[in-house]
Each structure stands twice: as structure tokens, then as C-alpha cells.
Amino acid sequence: MVAFVSALPVSHAFSATPSTAACMTSTFIASRRVTHLTPRRVRPAPRMTFEAGVFETSNPFAAELKATAKYIASRGSGILASDESNSTTGKRLATIGLENTVDNRRRWRELLYTSDIGDYIAGAIMFEETLYQSAADGTPFVKILQDKGIVPGIKVDTGLTALPRTKAETATSGLDGLPDRCKQYYEQGARFAKWRAVMRISKADGAPSDAAILENAHALARYAQISQANGLVPIVEPEVLLDGDHNIDETAYYTERVLSFTFRALNEYDVCLDGALLKPNMVNPGTDSPNQCDAATVAKYTLQTMLRGVPPAMPGIHFLSGGMSDQEATENLNLLNTIEGSEIAPWSLNFSYGRALQMAVLKTWGGDDANKQAAQELLAKLARANGKAQLGEYEGPHPSPGGKVRNFQPLRLV
Ligand code: 13P
């Protein structure tokens, strides 16, 4: 008993006499169980110094991860998200009458990566197939990007699956075999990774449920931990969907709650935030909400939510476009970087856009190489507009023809 008591944390090893201790055995057991759930008590403080913390001494990639994250979050440039799965790419190609073949997907990515975007794009997220592909002249895509100063990245999740006993909520797959895949991607030249978790707001369905938030926070943290162990900067993407009729206060509440769970999980899994990036949604009202907001309100809510939820150690917050129109995505980003309070933002408020950078370019190309140059010039202008918006220096008119149209895409389960 004495040995048992002395093994307890100090707060429970009070001066019990043998007689009181005997009758308190059950209390000890109960309190020990509770104590067991308190990580600070069961995890001994590791030995560390300021220069050489746990992460720095245990991860051989530590310095590289931090440098890569900082580089990608550089002011004035952002991320081109071009990691759509073969199935999603096929749907996009179908809109311009192209068949979903390996070569057509390759041609499309070649158009993107050989555009003049190096001044405003610091990272490009690729799909696995694309990471191993080359341009028609035989130059690997990875080299084309690196030569422009663009860090190649890789989507490592394998898609969304239904989360049982929830109403149309999802978990993200891809943890099995992830360490080996990360090693191979690193060898191929990737230096950062992406994992997309998706949550939806629906009052009627009670979404997002705690089960969905917990599951997605856990998977994001485990993915981030594995990525960092294998030299890839994890982009942590907890997306709260734009779909729904909720108002902006509800989006702010759930986005903050999701961020809170996510960062708690990242901390529990010892993810080094200086070597990671965040990819959240902007705080918009649901697309079917009767209470739509102007860009200044969206920027105000988004900044407040990020200030409340994102630790300053993270170098960059790279928003997804999530269905916002091309113009909205640029204007909101510009306002975010100019509104009152943005001057104290400790991270770069940045972009990692897929649809807002690609859809108009795809349409301009139309699968016909006679239009390739025009499409590439448009992509360069879009990249520049968003790079300028990151600095709060964007001035219209927006380069996207039809730039006010929102770009929705239905969720796809694997
Ligand atoms: P959108 O900008 O089209 O939302 O895509 C970004 C992305 O990479 C989603 O995972």
C-alpha cells in the first residue's frame, strides 16, 4: 500500500496514516484512474533545451521541415492545389469534352506546371500519378516545378468514406501503409503532403457530430505525425464545408471547435507546428443561408476565428477556395490581409486554391492546344492576383472571365 501510494503523483500522496489509508484504498484506485487520463501527470517531462527540443533531437528532418514550411508560407506567394484524384479530374475533363485517360490528365497538368507562375506559387500539390509523370519533352514534373522554385507536394489521403451511425458525415482514409508511401514520395522529390478531412454543418442532422470532429482530428494528427517522421511537411486540412443553410456565426463556432480539437490532437501526437501548415475554410455563411455577408464580414469572422484557434508557431494558414468564386477567393484573401487586426496575425494568411485557380483555365484551354497559351496566361494572372491578395495589394479587375460564379462540386466517397 505504501509503495502504491508513493507511486502516485504528489497531489495524491498525502500524509495518510495506515488506518486511514486502508479505508481509502478504493478512493486511491478511483483517483488513480482519473489521474491516468491527465496526460501531464503520466507523461514525464522530456529532457530538452531551447535549441534542442524533443522534436529537434528525435526527427532528423526537423530543420528541413521548418525551412520548407516557412518557404511555402512566404509572403506574396501561395499553393496551387492540383491534386484531384483521377476520378475528379475525369469529371473536370469531361466538362471540356476530353476523355479521362492517363495522357489527357498528364497534358492538363503539363499546362499548369509549365505556366509562368513561379513568382506567385511556392508549392504545388500533386496526385500520386502526377508526381511520377513528365512533360511531353521528357522533363519530370517534379523538376519543372523545382526549377521554378515551386516545392512539389503530394496528396496522401485516399479519399472519404462514410462514418457509420452519422448522417452523411465522413472519415478520411489513407493511414494504412502511409509511412512507406511517404518515404517513396520523399525519394521522388515531394517535400510536403496534404490530407483533407471534411465536416459539414447541418442543424437538422446534428452535424458536425463530436464523433466526426474527433475522428477527423485524430486522423489528421496521426497523418501529420507520420509525414513529419518521413520528411514531409503536413498540410493539415480540416475543411468545414460551405454547403448548407447555416449562418456565419454557426460557421465560426464550428470552425473554431474543429480547430480546437485538431490542435489538441496535433499536440498530443507531438506534431511540430513550426514544420506544418494549416489549410482551413474561410468563415462564410452556408451557401443556402438567407443571411449572406459581404467580403468584409467574411474577412472579419475568418480572422477572429483563426486568431482564436491557430497557434502562432504555425507559419502559414493556406485557405482552400471550397467553392467560392474565383473573384471571391481573391477579394476575401485581400481583405483578410488588410482589415484591422490583420497586422498582428502571426502567420501568413495565404491561399491553397484548387478550383479558384483552375476552373477558368480549364475552360479557356478546352482541351485544344491552340488555346494553351491563353490558358497559361490566365493561370499566371490568377496566380499573380492571389499572390498580390496575400500581400493585401490586389487591385481589380479580376482576371477570371465569369469569375463571380461559385464552383460547387459534390462530395465523392471512395
Ligand atoms: P479547392 O480550392 O477547390 O477547395 O481545393 C483545395 C483542395 O486542395 C481541397 O483539398
Description of the molecule:
It is a single chain. This protein has 414 residues and is α/β, with parallel strands linked by helices. The protein has 2 domains: 2-37; 50-390, Alpha-Beta Barrel (TIM Barrel), CATH 3.20.20. It is 44% helix and 13% strand. Helix 15 runs antiparallel to helix 16 and helix 16 packs antiparallel against helix 17 (372-390). Strands 8-7-6-3-2-1-10-9 form an 8-stranded parallel beta sheet. Strand 6, helix 12 and strand 7 form a beta-alpha-beta unit. Residues 81, 196, 237, 320-322, 353-356 line the site of 1,3-dihydroxyacetonephosphate. The site of 1,3-dihydroxyacetonephosphate has 10 residues, from helix 16.
Topology summary:
Elements: H1 2-6, H2 18-23, H3 25-36, H4 39-42, H5 54-58, H6 62-72, E1 78-82, H7 86-94, H8 102-113, E2 121-126, H9 128-131, H10 141-147, E3 151-155, E4 159-162, E5 170-173, H11 178-188, E6 192-199, H12 210-229, E7 233-240, H13 248-268, E8 277-278, H14 295-309, E9 316-319, H15 326-336, E10 348-353, H16 355-365, H17 372-390
Parallel strand pairs: 1-2, 1-10, 2-3, 3-6, 6-7, 7-8, 9-10
Antiparallel strand pairs: 4-5
The protein binds 1,3-dihydroxyacetonephosphate.
Pathway: Carbohydrate degradation; glycolysis; D-glyceraldehyde 3-phosphate and glycerone phosphate from D-glucose: step 4/4
EC number: 4.1.2.13
Keywords: Glycolysis, Lyase
